[in-house]
Structure formats: structure tokens, C-alpha cells
Amino acid sequence: MASNYIKKCPECGSINLMSRDERGEIICKDCGLVIEERMIDFGQEWREFDSESADKRRRTGAPITATKFDGGLGTSIGTDADILKLNTKSKNKYMRLQKWQHRISTAIERNLKLALAELKRVSSFLKLPNPVLEDASEIYRQAVQRGLVRGRSMESVVSGALYAACRRHEIPRTLDELAEASGIDKKEIGRTYRFITRELGVRILPSNPVDYIPRFSSELKLNAETQSKAVEILEMAQKAELTSGRGPTGIAAASLYVAAVMNNEKRTQREVADVAGVTEVTIRNRYKELLKKLDLEDELKKKQKENKEEAEKEKE
DNA sequence: AAGACGAAAGTGGTTGA
DNA sequence: TCAACAACTTTCGTCTT
Prior knowledge:
By secondary structure, this protein is of the alpha+beta class. 58% of the residues lie in helices and 6% in strands. Strand 2 and strand 3 (25-28) form a beta hairpin. The longest helix has 38 residues, at 88-125.
């Protein structure tokens, strides 16, 4: 659904892989800036978390925003006017029900308010675009309604929802990044992520290593050619079925490493490993496979030779 | 001296009986 | 529920630049 292409981001300046997502937005995968919006009405206006301003700002009902605890819809048990018409006995009954409902909904609302605040905090820390935040809110809301939060901390469910939302929008952050941003243990996030996606039936595509390239690339300050090269290598690797079953970050990192060496922008394995959150060993393994299976050895040597020659020319 | 390489042992998660 | 298993990590010694 998402098509990728290279473009320069006016916000963070990084020459970057942009993605047009299912909402028609073009998003910088590095800083999360929304470059172009073609859709009529998503995002923007709903900055509210209190129900007072909500009614004023929202248009006729739809679209239902996920950042409000019940999406603006709700069931209430009778109005005051209704109740006045009833006899005393029934009145008491309905008032009890109203009270109950009030108790339940305020409890959920309180929880959701807190959660949404946390969600916003973490997502802005990670510079995630608005659609992801919306999606995560929706996931969290459903999780609460299904009682999946019980026995888990709110924060971990928030992180899990965010992680899932990132994956869905193909702007993945690693579990490590989520862990750092939220202060929740990586394993815990992974666990709740698996749990809630399973319980809610959220369909997640296996994450695509290509999605990691732009961010790693800009963090390593590699130029656009190197980045394209890395994507190229990655696509070849996918065709050669080198990618299945491996950690996507490792493969992305290895492709980037090879591409960097080829383009005379060499980074050490350590550097690449650090930004990708894997070890040098993993990079080495993937990198060895890439060279072997894709017959890149010759190309690599050739490029290195060229680079050397250029370096000598410079000296003169 | 730093980076690259590879072997060996350990960890956490998945899978299948 | 347990054991086998694959991917990844940690650690460490050796080779290369």
C-alpha cells in the first residue's frame, strides 16, 4: 500500500525515503513530518482531550476520533427529563443505574485520559506522525474495553499499542527505542504487544527492513546515493529470500554497511551496529551472506578500487 | 591501536510433540 | 508443558590496516 521514494525533508533536512501511506499522506520516515496531505480532513483539528471542547470542534459526528475515550459515542441511561416522568420506585432504580454508569465511565475515562497523555508524550518523544498516534489510541481504547489492561501496567499497554501502530504504518521504531522513550522494559513491551495484537486481531505485516533504512541512514549521515544503494541491495536480498526469519534491523544495517563501503562513505561496523541496535557480529553475518548470495563481492572490490584511485588523484 | 573477523558459549523466544 | 531449534548476543582471541 505504501510507496517509497526519495525526497528531501524540509523539516529535518535529511534526504529521505518518504512514504505515501494509506491515508494519502507523505511522511518523512526520519522525523515524522507530514510533507503533503491530500486527504480532506484527517489529523489537525482534534487537539482536545476534554469533552467540553470536543463537541464544538468535531463536525457532524464522523470521523470518530480515537483520541477521545469513547470516540464521542456513548450510551447513556435515560435523561433527567425522562426520569422525572417516572414514579418514585422507578426513579430510584434509574438513578442508581445512572450513578453506576457514571462511575464506570468516569473510571474508564480517567484511565484513558492518563493513557492518552502518556501516549502523546511517548509518541512526540519518538517524533511519530499524527496518524500513528491516532491508531495507537484506537488500539489502546479497544484494549481497555476488552479488559486487556488488567494485570498489566497502563504504560506497557500504551507502549505496546504504539509499537503496533508504528508497525501498521510502516514507520517502525525498534523495541529498544520504544523502551527508551517509555521507560518500560523491552521484553514487557514485546509481551504486551503480542498479547494485545493477538487478542484484538490486529493484523500486522511483518516489518520490512527497508523501512528502517532512512532513519539509520540519516543518523549515520550517509548521503542519498548510499541510501538508495542500500535499498537496492535490500530488495535484491529480499528476492533471494535472505530476509525471512532474520531480524529486519540486522539486514537493514548490513545493507547500509555494504552500501556505505561501496560509496566510499565507510562507517565502522560498530557505528552501524549502534544505530541499528544490533551487534557487530550480526552485521558481519548478514553482510557475509549478502556478499556471497548476491555476488556482490566483485562489485564491492571494484568500487573499492575506484575509490582508492580517486583518493590518489586527490593527492596530486 | 583500532577495526574486522570468527569461534564458542549463553539467552530468550518460537514451535511442535 | 517440555525439549529442540534458530536467531541473536556476549565474550574473547587473532588477524589486518
